[in-house]
Amino acid sequence: MPAPKDSLKERLARYRQIRISVTGRKSGRTISIPVWFVVDGRKLYLLPVQGSDTQWFKNALVNPRIRVSARDAEAEFRVVPLTSAKAVSSVIEGFREKYGAKNVKKYYSKFDVAVELTPA
Question: 5-119 maps to which CATH number?
Answer without folding.
Answer: 2.30.110.10
